[in-house]
What we know:
By secondary structure, the protein is of the alpha+beta class. The protein has 16 helices and 18 strands.
Amino acid sequence: MLSPLILKQLEQIVGSENLLTEKQDLICYGYDATQMEFMPEAVVHPANASETAAILRLANQELFPVFPRGAGSGFTGGSLPKTGGVVLVTTRMNRIIRIDTENLIAEVEPGVVTEEFQKAVEKLGLFYPPDPASLKFSTLGGNVAENAGGPRCVKYGVTRDFVMGLEIVLPTGEIIRTGTETYKAVVGYDLTRLLCGSEGTLGVITSITFKLLPLPDAKKTMLTIFDSIDGAARAVSTIIGNKIIPTTLEFMDYATLQCVERRFSLGVPSEGRAVLLIEVDGDRDLIEKQASKIHELIKPLGLIQFRAAKDNAESEELWKVRRLISPSLRDVNPDKLNEDIVVPRSKVPDIIKEIEKIQQKYNIPIVNFGHAGDGNIHVNVMINKEIEGEEEKAHQAIREIFQATLDLHGTLSGEHGVGLAKQPYIEMELNNAQIKAMQAIKLALDPNNILNPGKIFPWKEMPDAA
């Protein structure tokens, strides 16, 4: 329990208007997209690195846990206050500090919304490619903490590929800077890469320096429908094998198509079994040639429909199929367990076939879609938690899906992280030596296990901490 004295000290750090202690206010900071809920004892909204550092120094002195939180849009419970304590919200730190058009870099605070940042740099003819599905409300600090991805990863990479440096408050309250503003830097350990994807367990991000690119001249969107999953998967390999790297290669399986078509009647052909949404960008003349070549390459692979957008309005119309997936899933069942496995892209049809077997075994609907260009499939196990035994069956199915993924040389998470949701499965992918090495890093930076404790590694597996 936080004593009145601790609460008073927190108030002195952030101001009374930025400290929440009433239950009706705390509820909003105790859940995320996982539907798990944990009530914090207090919520603080620091304005800068100095206030953040003071909070963490106090936490180490009084030994209460601190849970960093951005917009709270995560899918694995990474920001949830599992043991009460204090939720530290970074959304007040929401300035775009500078955009350097000569060196193609930008410095921002962690509370900047992803889409707002993209629009700001695009006004200057620049481009920040990472585009998680939550970009309209997720914040850049959370994107870095989870190493967020998105559809454009196949060509441009994930968030960490654009992070050049960070200002970080370490768990013990020291403020450090990592990385540089140069494209080459090999002095010391690469702490920037270590902190990207560390899920708020190794530090609180208070400033980010991003690499930017020139804004592509144009883009071309194509919606392609195939008569089999194999055909769609072969199309991905064929396109890339012919030296075309699309911006986006989004995949939807038959179950996904059925969901969207039942709800929205978009006119998907009845014989359609898989969709690829393909987008290329770059020089206007080049992308027209690429679109034509893609059409020719995939024709023999069971292609039954090919639609190419003529302008941005038509592009948005084609993207509608992808964007309408989430609202249509609830028609299958009210509750969703969302996993984000990754396999080598040539193995996408293999993992889909394994998932179909698991679905039949447990008699649970499973809907699959995602980023075929990098083998990242969002597996949605749809259940009704009010039916006795459904949730238990779902977790058994997920364990088998994870094992099938690993058997195909894949990984349990491509962009959602581990948090709490994947914690029970971490030993399926990481051996004891790997886990101990990661725990050693955690405890070296956070000897009192103050910052986001209980995430990634089960507490029972953590070495003794104060």
